[in-house]
Amino acid sequence: MQFTESAISLNVKDVTASAEWAVRHLGFTEAMSAEGFTSLSHPSAGFNLIYLAVGLSTFKPASAAGPADGLLVAFTVDNIDEECERLRAEGVQIVTEIETEPWGERFFQMADPNGVIFQLVQWVEVETQQD
Q: Which residues contact 16 (CB under 8 A, 6 or more apart)?
């Protein structure tokens, strides 16, 4: 199987608020939009980020038309500290301060206006303990 494009669709209460947040803080641009729908693109994301209004009658299956709870959207960046400070200065809600996992994943998390959690990651070298 070969994919020609990819997208992630998130159901949110306020499509405009989330879309404007991703454009302003993450550098996405609007690819298309309609009532209750906005598709955003980014030259290095590898997928379109789509926001759908919760409860759209056209959403299938209807049982999954609720808000995007329990979802984490992650992007790898080159300078996690710089990005965290930039976003904090822009007023972005940082929900998890920078942490470094033992396996080298250095990350922080932020929330968009609808509570969707975005995580920025930088992979770093970790020292291994010698016995």
A: 38
Dihedral in degrees, nearest 10, Cα atoms 77, 80, 83, 85: 180
Taking the C-alpha atoms of residue 115 and residue 123, their distance in angstroms, rounded to an integer, is 25
Residue 66 has pLDDT above 90, yes or no: no
Specify the pTM. 0.87
Residue type, 115: G
- Sheet containing 72-76, strands listed edge to edge, beginning at the edge strand earlier in sequence: 72-76, 117-123, 105-111, 93-100
Dist. CA 44–CA 77, nearest whole Å:
10
How many residues are listed for the chain in this entry?
Answer: 131
